[in-house]
Design brief:
22% strand; alpha/beta
């Protein structure tokens, strides 16, 4: 009997370890950006241009350029999109771009009414099932409409998808949006359709209400059936477009795949207490967007709005500002941007601080010894981590002369900046099964490189590269989770990414939920031991 009890205790300990170390599931909620991407009539089309695709000096190189309106595909509306003088894209606080996920399923109501609008009654029905909504949530309508994407006729619900007066698709009722803002202080309101206002609207009240209250809008969200109606966290990492009215975003959700998704969650105060999470912005302002005034002014005259409207167009190479290198960037036949599994785009954060070494040697390369020193201090690196060099170089951004370490920033043979040594990259791949390797400089190979061995190693091993990362001094060297949600560019060799980190803002504070779980298992085991002694 004692043997059976001990075996039971052992099984309980294994179960406890699994629960405490459970990895959350991550789901991509974004459509690919390509020529079929949905945008409002009058906007310029998506454009994708191949700049390089072939062997150059016996090395493979893929590199592309793309141009698109801000409000295309899966994207967010900044408050300034519809209300003058409110937040532009680069002014939205990072804390507004994530929150507890609330999915409002209205598919059965939409079946017989394509003009359906989510009502307060729908929200109260959700709360009756799941409990009161947490504050600062991301609330998204699931109408099943994303299954029609990218067929314009089906998405806009009309045989004339250039005539907005004929549109028929569901959205939000303004009373429900007001309720969410006043009663639940939501961060964002989203839809799986082209607009937060339903297709037949003429005055866009939801856009105006959200803009006036600094609430972010999300449009053309995908894959909502893969996310529980309650219990997820949704992130809205929009491209940080300077002076923008919105922008494309790699929206995604995380949740505990083992939890009972129908169980009510904790109330807002408990949620804040159990998850003291700090978000650190790791993204430079990419570029000044190009305004498309001529086209948009013409469009505004064609479609009569009773509100101010801001809308812009931007164009850029994939490898600009804070961005990622897809494996195919330097190795033929490897993953393109839209082929990288979403699970590869996040992981435990490992920050390798080499600022002191770089002070005396701008050509410094991170070596295996630097990695072993990190492990001496923090313990063995977790598998599938995102490892980033912190050289302090981002303080030089965006001065090209300082960033490239040369008075001739167009002459690559004169570049001087630090990065990774290929031996360290090989060690990370072979010994620690790394997900991504990054730098706060322009390249994962140092400035004086002529063969780019780190790029090749990363590409061959399906490891993502991250370049021009910012604000690394604001992130702990160990204990964070780093996300690299690159724009989902079809056929891409990389792309701009709103890189960010989350971490416990009180590192010495033990996670309360884990403590409760451990305590309950301890009591159960103690009871088992007592029973064993009695028997």
């Amino acid at each position: 009997m004692r043997s059976k009890i001990c075996n039971g205790c052992f099984l309980f300990l294994i179960t406890l370890a699994i629960i405490v170390q459970a990895v959350p599931r991550i789901v991509d909620l974004s459509h690919k950006q390509n020529n079929d991407s949905i945008t409002w009539p009058g906007n310029p089309p998506y454009q994708f241009t191949v700049l390089d695709r072939g062997f150059y000096d016996n090395a493979w190189l893929e590199n592309n350029h793309f141009a698109m309106p801000e409000h295309m595909g899966t994207h967010i509306d900044a408050p300034a999109h519809s209300v003058q003088g409110t937040w532009r894209t680069d002014q939205i606080p990072m804390e507004k771009l994530y929150g507890p996920g609330v999915i409002i399923n209205v598919k059965s109501k939409v079946e017989n009414n394509p003009d359906y609008r989510v009502t307060v009654a729908d929200l109260l029905t959700w709360e009756k099932k799941n409990g009161e909504m947490p504050r600062h949530a991301i609330v998204v309508m699931n109408s099943g409409w994303s299954s029609r994407y990218p067929n314009k006729t089906l998405v806009f619900g009309t045989s004339t998808p250039t005539d907005v007066s004929t549109f028929h698709f569901p959205g939000w009722h303004e009373n429900a949006v007001m309720w969410l803002i006043n009663k639940r202080q939501v961060n964002a309101v989203g839809v799986d359709t082209p607009s937060t206002d339903y297709g037949q609207t003429t005055n866009y009240p939801c856009h105006v209400i959200m803009g006036e209250n600094d609430v972010v809008g999300i449009e053309n969200v995908a894959n909502l059936d893969k996310v529980p109606e309650n219990g997820s966290t949704i992130y809205l990492p929009v491209l940080n477009i300077f002076d923008g009215s919105g922008g494309p975003a790699r929206v995604f959700a995380t949740f505990d795949d083992e939890s009972n998704k129908n169980e009510p969650r904790c109330n807002p105060d408990q949620l804040q207490a159990l998850c003291p999470c700090a978000l650190c912005f790791l993204k430079e302002k990419l570029f000044e967007n190009k305004l498309f005034y001529a086209k948009m002014q013409k469009w505004r005259k064609k479609v009569v709005f009773t509100m101010p409207i801001e809308n812009n167009h931007f164009a850029m190479p994939e490898h600009m500002g804070t961005h990622i290198d897809a494996p195919v960037h330097t190795v033929q036949g490897m993953w393109k941007t839209d082929q990288i599994p979403i699970e590869k785009l996040y992981g435990p954060g490992v920050i390798i601080n080499v600022k002191e070494k770089v002070k005396s040697n701008p050509d410094y390369r991170v070596i295996v010894e630097d990695l072993l020193m990190w492990e001496e201090k923090y313990g063995e690196m977790p598998r599938r981590a995102v490892a980033i060099m912190n050289s302090g170089w981002s303080s030089k951004y965006p001065n090209k002369t300082l960033v490239f370490g040369s008075p001739e920033p167009t002459n690559t043979s004169t570049f001087h900046f630090p990065s990774w040594h290929e031996d360290a990259v090989t060690w990370l791949i072979n010994k620690r099964q790394i997900n991504a390797v990054g730098v706060d400089t322009p390249s994962t190979d140092y400035g004086m490189s002529s063969t780019y061995p780190c790029h090749t190693l990363l590409g061959k091993n399906s490891v993502v590269g991250i370049e021009s990362v910012a604000n690394l001094d604001n992130v702990p060297e160990s204990g964070s989770t780093i996300y690299i949600p690159v724009l989902n560019i079809a056929d891409g060799s990389g792309g701009p990414a709103r890189v960010f980190a989350t971490y416990d803002d009180e590192p010495n504070k033990t996670n309360a939920a884990a403590m409760v779980t451990c305590f309950m298992f301890f009591l159960y085991l103690l009871a088992a031991v007592l029973v064993c002694n009695v028997l």
